[in-house]
Amino acid sequence: xxxxxxxxxxxxxxxxxxxxxxxxxxxxxxxxxxxxxxxxxxxxxxxxxxxxxxxxxxxxxxxxxxxxxxxxxxxxxxxxxxxxxxxxxxxxxxxxxxxxxxxxxxxxxxxxxxxxxxxxxxxxxxxxxxxxxxxxxxxxxxxxxxxxxxxxxxxxxxxxxxxxxxxxxxxxxxxxxxxxxxxxxxxxxxxxxxxxxxxxxxxxxxxxxxxxxxxxxxxxxxxxxxxxxxxxxxxxxxxxxxxxxxxxxxxxxxxxxxxxxxxxxxxxxxxxxxxxxxxxxxxxxxxxxxxxxxxxxxxxxxxxxxxxxxxxxxxxxxxxxxxxxxxxxxxxxx
Length: 334
Known about the structure:
Blueprint: H1 2-16, H2 18-27, H3 53-70, H4 77-104, H5 111-132, H6 135-138, E1 144-145, E2 154-155, H7 159-179, H8 185-194, H9 209-224, H10 233-254, H11 258-267, H12 269-287, H13 299-305, H14 310-332
Antiparallel strand pairs: 1-2
Helix pairs in contact: 1-3, 1-9, 3-4, 3-9, 3-10, 4-5, 4-10, 5-7, 5-10, 7-10, 7-12, 8-9, 8-14, 11-14
């Protein structure tokens, strides 16, 4: 019941605050700029308020407070660590969305600076999560051992695993960031990806974050579906990517098997495909003398240039996300 309550609270918070927050973003001139290489269909979006990720963050904050009140603050440490880690990335997104443009007159952070800040934020967030985990995980060494079958291959958390965990978080942050390119796409896919994680909300400390985030995304979608009245910006997309990376990492720390790694990768499969399409495209351009595989990347732009309408792409990506999330959940049960 508490999971349903926090879902509703976070959804209503993002829904009710939408109009005043969008008005505030317009007043401070936090407006979307369209890159030169973006499809021409995006030109009318120029000037739409951005940094709407604040709505999602406020929704999550409300949900966390209600969950804490309902449980008198017990077992809330991991949720707060995940939320705090995601806020680190939201701050980087805010720097990119607004402050660099206002203070330096540039379009945003250079990609090298952004990536460096992401690695620092991930290193701190993963370490905080590691320290907050129950003692049995903290006491493990760097040993790797196998049991019966693929799913029983266990990796005990140590410094080698720590480096992989940092890469895991940074990878998801950038995957979510690249996916945020069409009205409702990233928020809808995030809600779908977190839904399978909601089944652990009542049995695993920290997992209550899943229904809270689903609710915040659902409330935000009221303002972000086509035609969008606000965009989440890097403030929102980095927050969502870090949330997914840190929550799934928390679950992996409790059950660190390769089967679970594959399961969570499937659950976030559309986001993974989006970032892989960029990697494949750039590799092809560099290694094959400028030849492209896709018309444009991330891959949702490829379908735009094929003539698909924006709502069609979003709905079909949502369907793909639901299928992959279901497949990931099924794999986790094996």
